[in-house]
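Lay summary. Proteins are chains of building blocks that fold into shapes, and those shapes determine what they do. In this project we predict the shape from the chain. Here is one chain we studied, written as its sequence of building blocks.
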Amino acid sequence: MTQVSVRGKVYDSVSKSVLSPVSIENLRTHQGCFSNAQGEFALDAQLGDFLIFTHVGYNRKVVSLKVADDAKSLKVYMTVKTTSLKPVTIKRGPTEYQKDSTNRADVYKDAFDYQQQKSAMSPVTSIYQKFSKKYKNLRKFQDQIIDNEKQKFIDTRYTPELTTKMTQLEGDELASFMNQYPMDYDYARVATELEIKMWIKYNFQDYVKKGRPPYVPQVKK
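And here is the predicted shape, written in a compact code that computers can read:
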């Protein structure tokens, strides 16, 4: 079969805006990549291969590679997924993250109450708060709490255990990889388990390409 280098862009079918990060996988080889911030991607394949495009909130798109010339500038349009909600019965209790998050919300309640109440204050008081060192520090503290809460949620999806399973990295090499490839909160919040795994796999391929070979643990004698 003819080998081709597939290049192209992924778009929203309605707005025509580019989509990123879209997961692209060759169903024959199971090799894949993600579209970049400009919606662009590049992937090796053969004529006759099927590529599957997956993106959070969109219907999956399967493209068959039939003509070599078309594969050089492929344009893929994805449609938004419409979801009808069905009644569900939740039997499982809250996760450890949810319990901890609730406890943290109680602990930091006073700090967040300030933000909710300030709109009812007088204009003079609002101006004072804007330039007061005390309230600047309080707002900074609020931002730190929010950032910390987001990171704790990311840690429940992008775990060392899952990353080791996908990459075989351990110890310092594992920590180095996860620090170099942090996961965005919005992506962690909406991605499926399969998309999380594909994201780790894609970034690990990039990690190896940059000259960082997989970590091989030393056997203690």
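What the prediction tells us: The chain has a mean pLDDT of 77.
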